[in-house]
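Fresh eyes needed here. Have a critical look at this protein's tokenised backbone.
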Amino acid sequence: MNWLFEKGKIDLRRSDLFDTSPEAVPSDFDFAKVEGMMLGLATGDSLGRGTEGMLPQERRAAYGEIRDYPPNRYAEGKPIGVPSDDTQLAFWTLEQMIEDGKFDPEHVAKRFCRDQIFGIGSTVSSFRRNFKTGRPWYESGPKSAGNGALMRIAPMVIPHLKSAGPDIWVDTALSAMITHNDSGSISACLSFVKMLWQLLEMNDPPSPEWWLETYVAVAQGLETNESYRARGGAFMDYRGPIWRFVKEKVSDAYRRNLSIVEACNSWYSGAFLLETVPSVIFILMKNGDDPEEAIIRAVNDTKDNDTIAAIVGAAVGALHGKSRTPARWIKNLSGRTSFSNDGRIFELLTAAKEIWG
């Protein structure tokens, strides 16, 4: 990590986060919180899959309020939850860490290139082309503030549960830069992992302000002087860092008591982190105490709904645990990470518990 900073290989400011250790998890820690985090990610992804990219009003006109998995052509027309790239990449990361007993960025990069990715984004496609031509993993990730790293970052907390230390931040930064070597993306991943770590230890929901303040406190020390520009919605004149956009626009939307769909429409809620992060934070501020409703609002009220619901699902799953994830969603989740390996994510969670639980 120090070499990457010294050589300018990683697009990130080195903050004091890298010199701090998270609080150790309690001795009676319940691994069901981790299961809730990962299943929240998978269920949110599957609930949004199929209507991704639609404007909320278009989706509602076509499908009404989505509260369960729609019939899926990849599951013989049954209402079964099937994954997109969010679930695949998150669980492939976990799968590789289980095999290695730790996080190895080169091995994870190779794992991302092995199988077909469902609904692969342009940035991950570019990473795979770069890596397959022989570039080292740390030079293969394009500079991109898309949400393709943030959507898969949740499992990075798992190998550190028994030995909390600053290596969790190093591993998270390296994991993020595999596909998205951009300070906005890497800082978002680090902010979210710190939030997840704290959520896993909480017994009660935090205040609405906690979500916003925690994100901003971490991200503002990590983002470089990159000036991101809004690409849609009501803030086309914005130029600046992602953390400042979140601090200003999300706090204002919350103060004005906007609905989730009103707020998310105002910043467009697409796959760009200047849209994804405020959507995630605002939904959690409004509904972080109700995991089912938080995921449902992400699915119905945002544009890039599968990814936003996956990120929201990981957060509320970490906070509330597996028991608060609707049983019908878990029961009807295929659990696959490829075309035909149904149940695979449940096998991986069992293996992870044996190692780190």
